[in-house]
Amino acid sequence: MLFEDILGHEQIKSYFKNALERHQVSHAYILTGEAGMGRKMLANAFAMALQCESGEARACGTCHSCRQFMSGNHPDVVYVRHEKPGSIGVGDVREQIINDVEIKPYSSPYKIYIVDQAELLTPEAQNALLKTIEEPPEYAVIFLLTTNSEAFLPTILSRCTKLKLKPLYDQVIKDYLKEHEKVSDHQADICAAFARGNLGKAVALASSEEFAKMQEIVLELLKHVKDMEIREMLAVLKEIKEANLNVGDCLDFMQLWYRDVLMFKATRDTSMFIFKDEYKYIREIADHSSFDGIDKVLKAIEKAGVRLAANVNYEVAMELMLLVMKENFV
């Protein structure tokens, strides 16, 4: 709940701290970023600091207000709920924000409303919320947390302070996984690369049995595809399907593998490897592939994803990709 407990996002944390120090708090914020990047943590940390009795630019964590917040029972912080899983309707907004905001804070300087998955707000709900955002009571602060700010009406966007979360550096994520999740160096490299700057995703991958299973199956395929018969490749494709693995993740994993192949082919440098434990296989593929061949494989992986998104038969799309992998091994 404290700013210092949140990894990365220094610009946003600095922005919030400056707002607190200068007493220049906006009435509406949009925090946008991928799920797992820390939107709710940042909103919570700022909300807690806004209500803190210390009057500092950070929450003390010990006053009555902070203790209420940390217990989830702060009377002046409202987490907007919605009954329908796919939308946040006018009724939700009217009941939990519009009608409630007319009631002054019980014990704090602000009345704070946090709307998670705010991209689910229907146009009608956004229009209903607009007047509150345009003419809010001086004590009202609304947070709209979203993975897609384009879902908002232009009138909402123009009246909110928009803050976009940026990906964390891979090294920051690796260090966190090794220190806090007790993940091996090798696994930390893979999870960090796969998460693309999203700490929440990296942590989830590190403990995912499905991700571990996917690595096991796909790595064996990548290491031995050059020697496999068609029937063996089809058997692996069947195993992936029967294990109910995310095929998109499988394709992303293959791209990371061939990124290492390409890097080694170009530089002979292993320091930036993701798959450090598989050096023997990476070198063998790099030594028996041309730059043009590796490029064709990467394009084939991308094309397989496009085909699958277009509902092309799974076996056909994946087999065509694997054939390109075999053909470009010289």
Explain what you see.
With 330 residues, this protein is an alpha/beta fold. Helix content is 55%, strand content 7%. A five-stranded parallel β-sheet has the order 2-3-4-1-5, covered by helices on one side. It is elongated and about 75 Å long.
Descriptive key words:
330 residues; 15 helices; 7% strand
Work out the strand percent: 5-15%
Strand line-up across the major sheet: 2-3-4-1-5
Task: Give me the number of helical elements.
Answer: 15
Specify the biggest β-sheet: 5 strands, parallel
Task: Give helix % range.
Answer: 55-70%
In quaternary terms, these chains amount to single chain
Uncertain parts: none
* Count of strand segments: 5
Structural class: alpha/beta
Indicate the overall shape.
Answer: elongated
Compute the gyration radius: what is it?
25 Å
Order of helices and strands: HEHHEHEHEHEHHHHHHHHH
In angstroms, what separates the terminal alpha carbons?
A: 55 Å
Mean pLDDT: 91
